[in-house]
Amino acid sequence: MGISVSAPEINESLVGFTVTSPLNIRFGLSAIKNVGDKLAEAIVEERKKNGPFANMADYVARIDVGILNKKSMEALIKAGVFDTFEDRNKLLTNLEKLLEHARQEAKAKQTAQQGLFGAKSYKAKNISFLLESDKFGTFFRSSKQSKT
Predict the structure, then answer these.
(1) What is the reported pTM?
(2) Tens digits of per-residue pLDDT, 124-133?
(3) Mapping DSSP to helix (H, G, I), strand (E, B) and coil, where does residue 21 land?
């Protein structure tokens, strides 16, 4: 039949499978094992509301930290959803740091919303420092991984 299935992509996939052309189907986010409908819907809604995600910092800052967990993030990374942003191995290696950054961003955003007269002065921080490799070409590793 010649029908192809495109891999899931953070800025293109919808909750379920989507026909993108007569001979192409885009893999849906909720079809990825360990990614629930709630997270898939949150990703699609956030993207519709505020446009495509620019990078990983943008993604972790915009998705509710309450539904962002290690298991679902790992599944999204392994499925190739973030391939346009960064190498899968680098993301998996730094997953704990990304999640910690997401928690800190949520806390900072909450603090900014409670500021003087409710002014929204919050701006997401760049996380490229979390994903950079050192001069020897090895990636920063979490303390858990460096003990092995």
Answers:
(1) 0.75
(2) 555 555 555 4
(3) strand
